[in-house]
Amino acid sequence: MDPLVIAGRTFESRLLIGTGKYRDFAETRAAIDASGAQIVTVAIRRTNIGQNAGEPSLLDALPPSQFTYLPNTAGCYNAEDAVRTLRLARELLDGHDLVKLEVLGDPQTLFPNMIETLAAARTLVADGFKVMVYCSDDPIMAQELERIGCVAIMPLASLIGSGMGILNPWNLQLIIEKATVPVVVDAGVGTASDAAIAMELGCDAVLMNTAVAKARDPILMARAMRKAVEAGREAFLAGRMPRKLYSASPSSPVGGLIEPRAT
Questions:
Q1: Of 220, 190, 195, 217, nearest in space to 205 by CA
Q2: DSSP of the chain, one letter per residue?
Q3: Pick from 68, 63, 71: which is nearest to 29 by CA?
Q4: What is the torsional sign of CA 13, 51, 116, 148?
Q5: How far apart are CA 254 and CA 170, in angstroms?
Q6: How many whole angstroms separate alpha carbon 121 and alpha carbon 104?
Q7: What are phi and psi of 89, to 5 degrees?
Q8: How many beta carbons lie within 10 A of that of residue 254, not counting itself?
């Protein structure tokens, strides 16, 4: 499969995996190995990566030498908290600057607050961060985030943790058509077919957490998601046949067939 390029860095996998909601760090590692993911997201407010001395650290289960960490601001509801969280992550990860920004607007739906997201994005980009940004599927908001300098646009497919799949493929296509940076579907993927559809639409990658972590068999689901992303990407590159209500042309050629003799 052709590589994914984000902020000048190249990745073989187009599947990004979250590290939360698993039973333990051992299951986290097993699922991520099965997924083939190279980029792993980490909720700085919920996961220990060294800020809690004496507690098990994700860094031991997923060494940064083997995986690219994508610190995120899950649990932040304003720009100030989001910026503070990612500055802490940069300190904990020795100057790491590739981050995922998400500023939530509602604790029940976890829908993004785009006003605060835009404010945080401006501050972080000016501060030297390479910002991948979770956002609504509004094409105008996506264009503004790219104009600010975000290195990837990450529209939701449906609400975080809902597993409802892609509810508005038309908006996603509008975002994809205008974007000059990678578009990564973030939130709402429930099963492998959702991931495949996102890639078939032309998304550059898919990010998921709950769909794998809360599956009955997370390791098997991670493996399925890996195959789905690869198949969806290949289908997009191959180019599907046109949709038709019906076809008057048979699938096999009819020219040169021997005609029955008239009686």
A1: 195
A2: -PPEEETTEEES--EEEE--SSSSHHHHHHHHHHHT-SEEEEETTTS-SSSSTTS--HHHHS-TTTSEEEEE-TT--SHHHHHHHHHHHHHHTTT--EEEE--BS-TTT--B-HHHHHHHHHHHHHTT-EEEEEE-S-HHHHHHHHHHT-SEEEE-SSSTT-----S-HHHHHHHHHH-SS-BEEES---SHHHHHHHHHHT-SEEEESHHHHTSSSHHHHHHHHHHHHHHHHHHHHH-PPPP-S--SS-SS--TTPPPPPP-
A3: 63
A4: negative
A5: 38
A6: 13
A7: -60, -40
A8: 7
Closest CA to 182 of 199, 169, 165: 199
Quickly tell me which residue has 């760090």 as its tokens: 25
pLDDT in tens, the chain (263 residues): 799 999 999 999 999 999 989 999 999 999 999 999 999 999 887 787 767 777 788 888 899 889 999 999 999 999 999 999 999 999 988 888 999 999 999 999 999 999 999 999 999 999 999 999 999 999 999 999 999 999 999 999 999 999 999 999 999 999 999 999 999 999 999 999 999 999 999 999 999 999 999 999 999 999 999 999 999 999 999 999 988 888 766 666 655 666 666 65
Residues catalogued as catalytic: 100
Side-chain half-sphere exposure of 96, counting CA atoms within 13 A: 23
Written as six digits, the tokens of 145 are 């985030």
Q: What are phi and psi of 79, to 5 degrees?
A: -65, -40
Type of residue at 132: M
Q: Tens of pLDDT along 23-50?
A: 999 999 999 999 999 999 998 877 877 6
Q: What are the tokens at 211?
A: 């769909």
The neighbouring-strand residues paired with 104 are: 112
